[in-house]
Amino acid sequence: MFMESVWTGVKRLVPGIGVAAAYDRRWLWADLRAGVVLTAVLIPVGMGYAQASGLPAHTGLYATIVPLLVYAFVGPSRILVLGPDSALAPILLAAIVPLAAGDEQRAVALAGLLAVMVGVLLVFGGALRLGFVTDLLSVPIRTGYLNALALVVMVSQLPALLGVDVDADGPLGQVTGVVAGLAGGEAVPTAASLGLGSLAVILAFRCVPRRRWSGAKVTGIIVAVAAAVAVTVVWQLQDEVPVVGSMPRGLPAPALGGLMWADVGILAGPAAAVALIAFADTTTISRALSARRGEAVGGNQEMAGLGIANIAGGLLGGFPVSASGSRTPVAEQAGSKTQLTGVVGAAMIVVFMLGAPGATEFLPEAVLAAVVITAALGFLDVGHYVRLWQMDRTDAVLATAAFLGVFFVGVLEGVGLAIGLAFVAFAVRAWRPYRTELGLMRGRRGYHDRRRHPDAERVPGILILRFDAPLFFVNGGLFNQWVRQAVQRAVRENRGSDREPLGTLVLASEPITDLDTTAAEELVDLDDWLASRGITLVFAELKGPVKDTLERYGLNGRFTDERFAPTVGAAVDAITGELRKDIEGTPDV
What domains, with CATH codes, occur in the chain? Predict the structure, then answer.
């Protein structure tokens, strides 16, 4: 029994061991084949995102090899592919390049430090079960920042794609610089031809219907890269166009020299932002995969696994990574069954770096730019943005704010602005929630919204109101004012008629899920105001925890048991002293 519990604990902490112990040999060929196919994408995309992050191309391979191997053991998802990602590239570029000041080795060290810091935050977050923090990145915010990130990444690759030397910061500066360079004839026609040609090839293959050829996306990248290298070699273009150059021969190794404690403080903000965005992307992809495959993946375990992978990658020459929305589908479509696919992919990259590091000597940077641009295109989702405008204008405004903030100000500032606006939107919605009066509809059970059902009647002597939100400091005053106005309106309508005077206010309290001290004071003030007019406040369907809150605030002496009813109907029956007789099956008593 003891050994069984230990084994269960080991499998929970290191899921890859459990998968290996129960590995089905029939999966082997599928995992090997998927790993080989995946490698064809991992190499050019990894190098491309490294350069998009302002880092040497080979660091993109280090940031692919190590996290893939580590995640295969500690990650809970079987086929999730980790690696450099377009959602993180702009943050890395903005955080590291200014600190490095042109020193390539320092840039690599800072990137490694940032990855370690991100990993530590994620591991602690997983241990403290903080997976819920990604809820801050709501669908509108994610829509806005992913669309903006896609454009930021694509704009950042335009100079390399067209062979234009641009010395400018920010997307607008880069666009202006590219336009000025093209107008001034500064572009390198050969580089532009290779870049645009590669882009056209990759996009052409992507247009092949998936039902006809699921491997078209991978094949397009392979064809574009191979063709560009062949053209460069045959026509000896390496001196005419910028090329990646040979990779350093060897395995990932520590590269954290020259760091200072001050760097930790400077990178604290970017580390928190990268951790949040990386985990949000990873959990989104992981949940989608687990739902399709009928697996259960815990968010906190995913957070810890991603954190450990980032720490390992940062210690060995890499930079922050997350799950890849472009490479994970490649593995899935290639038939991947387990984490062995990622291990094979990492091993193939190692073989490449040890056996053929010179293969990239003739790879034009313009081609890598084309690869990155096509990968970033996968994050553009204009259709979802349009649907947001059709469904909810507030959410659409949040998406727009995130988009504009990320694109024009910066990734961190833009996401922070959008999150702040989301809280404002939440407060506004809670401040002015839906509120209505309920009435009786003859022959129909329950009490119904009189705004939606004008034929619903007010019960003589009773006013039934419903406020659809928790009561707290933001809306307590509004609630008090709205109830008073509703009571005064009901009193005016009764004046001069033979209707029974208003004597009871029934508050349909089911939507009220919380109550703070400010709202409690407003409630006391309202109860005093009602009592001065001979009206009794009765709570119907108030939840037990909220009732406990009233007691904790010392209001149980004021709001005694007879002021509470299990349902609106029960409250009305108790006030009128008789049961409803207008519904079939209701006892006639």
Answer: 29-424 (no CATH), 434-576 (3.30.750.24)
